Amino acid sequence: MTWYAPFLAVALTPFLTANAVSTAAPSASAQQQTETVHDRKFWRAIAAHHYSIPPGLQVFPLVRELGGYLGSPDPELRDDLAYTILDVWIVYRNHHLIKGWIHSTAHTADLLGALAANPHFRAEDQARVLQAISERLSTAGQIFSYGEQDRLAVAVAAIAARKDFDAAGFHRWLSTLDESDRKVWKDSPPNDALLKTFQNNTYMLQALAARLYAKPKTPEITAALEEVIQILRKR
């Protein structure tokens, strides 16, 4: 099971249910797309065209529609199409010499950032996104070298910029991350897995500081930035 699967089951809930209502009225084109039910031929065509999003369509209604097929008893619709298309859109990782970028962590980070900035995103899901990011950085088994930490930092910064930003939850997340990272220095030489996590987290926090600094200076953003800087000063 990929690292993001448990998170998606929860975090995409408001996008995959018919009861999710935006605080702002959708555009006519978006509303029309949301109400469209595409047939099997449509999804087969997406797979045949290397999973590219069809021109003129928006990804969120497509993701929402695909999510409705995840519980389908039809194996082609559920596994060959819905699961596969969603997985490819979230993708695997890094760079393939022939296929090019197949970059799961970065692309999933982009999805998380888009979710965090979306009106459908619930305040209670902020902690789930932050936890998913921590899990990715701690289970990578490598020090990311293709900008993954920065892409994840963009998602965190998007959470901090929300009007319903859970500052207390953010503080708990940062404190837990920092406390966990301190364990790396208890052994000599350091545990390799913990050291890689420490480095990934440090690079993510450095990127997060830059991303927060670039945001409009609200009291919440300023406080979040100060917390991140305080942790970095001790590293």
Q: How are the SSEs ordered, and which strands pair?
A:
Elements: H1 5-11, H2 13-16, H3 28-35, H4 40-48, H5 59-67, H6 75-90, E1 95-96, E2 100-101, H7 104-116, H8 126-139, H9 148-160, H10 167-181, H11 192-213, H12 219-233
Antiparallel strand pairs: 1-2
Helix pairs in contact: 4-6, 7-8, 7-9, 8-9, 8-10, 8-11, 9-11, 10-12, 11-12
What do these coordinates show?
The chain has 235 residues and is mostly helical. It folds into 2 domains: 1-90, no CATH class; 122-235. It has 12 helices and 2 strands, in the order H-H-H-H-H-H-E-E-H-H-H-H-H-H. It has helices at residues 5-11, 13-16, 28-35, 40-48, 59-67, 75-90, 104-116, 126-139, 148-160, 167-181, 192-213, 219-233; strands at residues 95-96, 100-101. A hairpin with a 3-residue loop joins strand 1 and strand 2. The longest helix has 22 residues, at 192-213. The protein starts with a helix and ends with a helix.
Summarize the structure.
With 235 residues, the protein is mainly alpha-helical.
Radius of gyration: 19 Å
Q: Describe the biggest sheet?
A: 2 strands, antiparallel
- SSE pattern, N- to C-terminal: HHHHHHEEHHHHHH
Indicate the mean pLDDT. Answer: 82
Strand content: under 5%
The neighbouring-strand order within the major sheet is 1-2
Estimate percent helicity: 55-70%
Domains (count): 2
How many beta-strand segments?
A: 2
- N→C terminal distance: 33 Å
The low-confidence parts are 14-34
Structural class by helix and strand composition: mainly alpha
* Number of continuous helical runs: 12
What overall geometry do the principal axes of the alpha carbons give? globular
